[in-house]
Design goal:
alpha/beta; Rossmann fold; four-stranded parallel β-sheet; globular; Thymidine kinase
């Protein structure tokens, strides 16, 4: 029987999480696994559903996956992260099949990624023929009869386990050029372990997870209970966002590829100096404090853009003090499903987002082109909504990328996105 997968699609702040919490609290006898991107949201679910006594997996023998399996075996309600769920293996799949869990996925999973295979591993695979590739689907299969054990080789052990749960696919150009990349997918057969699956997100259709589900022939239905709020939310957000502009020559001359990852890497020193100088000017002009500011860019340039008011530090654990959490005002550009930054009022969005190039080419080769503009817009909207706009309070926003600002303004004005971007890829 195919899994019952329901996508609850609604704009940020529509009440998707509140709705599902209410549903959980109604069904006292049902068991749940609730997964969310960040640990602080795990705590929220534990507090919001006291009757279910949600448990968070602990490390056993240094492995959280083992802790997750123990909780499943004991029929506990579980709250955990996307990252831990992505470690799903055959043992956990078999265990879940014997239970009756409902899975709730808060925001889309990173259901597909491109992984690197070292030259040594590629050579051994070619020599031993331990992995076979299906010519139609490119699915990788481990020869368990000829090579039953991978003990002592961590990389081979990972590849074998991922093959066993049907999660690895060899990229088409690998076989032609010997490139060291493979596509990993979340094991599609894992969805059949659950009596029901809920995915809480916005604009699911056209997302990378949508492409993954189509590739894996996983059918889903859209729950549009929050669709009436979309137009109203755009109008409300438009009134709350005040754009900050800069007359610096480098800003006024930017093209649609500017502030992409590769743009920063070309003439890196000059461009980072320009960005940093503009940030200082804007902070002085608008009297911005580090407590008000929230900023993002890609990891590499962010290290050099950081200033006394644009604070970059190591990730802060959820159990840290509130003062420590507020000290760092850098928020990664893929952030979502967290309320930690709800007091930030002056935003600096120094990025131009595109899907991973290898992943995009992979899906295109399978007849499933990713919608670049929808990807970029959704990433930006999720990031902006980490700020105090989520509380109905106004914000200031500096978004120098003409493409990203244009996508946001079109969305605020209610314009529909084109299904295909005319841009060629900028990594």
């Amino acid at each position: 029987m195919p899994p019952d997968i329901i996508v609850i699609d609604g704009v940020m702040g529509a009440g998707k999480t509140t709705h599902i919490i209410n549903e959980i609290n109604k069904g006292v006898m049902q068991r749940y696994i609730y997964v969310t991107p960040f640990l602080d949201e795990v705590e929220r679910i534990k507090l919001a559903c006291p009757m279910h006594d949600f448990k968070e997996p602990k490390s056993l023998d240094g492995r959280k996956l083992k802790g997750l399996k123990e909780l499943v075996d004991s029929n506990a309600n579980i709250a955990t992260t996307h990252a831990l769920l992505s470690l799903m293996d055959n043992e956990l799949i078999t265990l879940l099949h014997s239970k009756d869990y409902t899975l709730v996925i808060d925001e889309t999973l990173e259901s597909s990624s491109i992984e690197y295979v070292s030259p040594i591993a590629r050579q051994l695979i070619a020599q031993t023929q331990c992995v076979s590739i299906c010519p139609e689907t490119a699915k990788a299969t481990w020869d368990s009869f000829a090579f039953p054990s991978t003990e002592g080789n961590e990389e081979f052990d990972r590849i074998r386990k991922q093959c066993d749960c049907e999660a690895l696919y060899w990229l088409p150009r690998n076989r032609e050029k010997g490139d060291g990349f493979i596509a990993w997918h979340f094991p599609a057969k894992a969805f059949a372990c659950f009596s029901k699956v809920y995915i809480l997100t916005y604009q699911f259709e056209g997302s990378p997870m949508d492409a993954y589900m189509r590739l894996q022939a996983l059918e889903y239905r859209i729950d549009n209970r929050f669709s009436d709020l979309d137009t109203e939310s755009r109008t409300r957000f438009k009134a709350l966002i005040n754009f900050m502009d800069s007359q610096s020559p480098w800003v006024t001359d930017l093209d649609d590829y500017a502030l992409s990852r590769s743009w920063f890497m070309r003439d890196k020193e000059k461009r980072i100096k320009q960005v940093s100088a503009t940030l200082k000017t804007l902070c002085n002009k608008h009297k911005v404090t580090s407590k008000e500011a929230m900023w993002t860019s890609f990891k590499e340039p962010a290290k050099e853009i950081a200033t006394s008011k644009m604070v970059l530090s190591k990730p802060v654990p959820p159990e840290a003090s509130e003062a420590r959490k507020r000290r760092c005002n850098f928020v990664p550009c893929n952030s979502r499903a967290t309320n930690r930054h709800g007091e930030r009022s002056v935003l600096f969005y120094l990025a131009n987002r595109f899907p991973n190039l290898e992943l995009e080419q992979y899906f295109k080769s399978r007849g499933l082109p990713l919608d670049r503009d929808r990807f970029a817009l959704n990433e930006m909207l999720q990031w902006i909504f980490r700020s105090r706009i989520r509380n109905g309070e106004p914000i200031k926003l500096f978004a120098p990328s003409p493409r990203m600002r244009g996508l946001l303004e079109d969305w605020l004005n209610g314009d529909d996105l084109k299904s295909e971007s005319s841009l060629s890829h900028a990594a």
